[in-house]
Design a protein that fits this description.
123 residues, alpha/beta, three-stranded antiparallel β-sheet, 3 helices, 21% helix, globular
Length: 123
């Protein structure tokens, strides 16, 4: 699905998503990604089931106000130990399916919020 076009102004915005990919500024990504308004980078994790607090070390480096975790085609909540570690990270954490994560991220960027989207791509 293609998302509604927004004024980019040099920011990284989701422009589409579908089975097995997301697109940021019309560049297709078929691997897990971390997206901030300034950059897109690969997120080298195996998948939702294997996530650990160590996989979120980027929070200390980037210090987002809000972390959006896109969990694929369905919203899946992290196990209690991981949820606790994320809550203690200092970022507000929102967990949602990837479609909602892409849309929410774009809205927050448009509002000028310091947001980071951690997107899991289902293969």
């Amino acid at each position: 699905m293609k998302l509604h076009s927004m004024q980019n102004e040099g920011r990284q915005l989701f422009s589409g998503y579908g089975p097995g990919y997301v697109a940021v500024n019309n560049v297709r990504y078929e691997r897990n990604v971390l997206v901030t308004p300034e950059a897109v980078s690969e997120w080298p994790v195996a998948g939702f089931e294997t996530l650990t607090p160590g996989d979120f070390g980027f929070i200390q480096d980037t210090r987002p106000e809000i972390l959006i975790l896109g969990t694929g085609s369905a919203q899946r909540f992290p196990p209690p130990a991981l949820a606790r570690a994320l809550a203690e990270s200092g970022a507000g954490v929102e967990v949602m399916d990837t479609k909602a994560a892409c849309r929410t991220y774009n809205i927050l960027v448009a509002e000028g919020r310091k947001v980071l989207a951690a997107i899991l791509i289902e293969r």
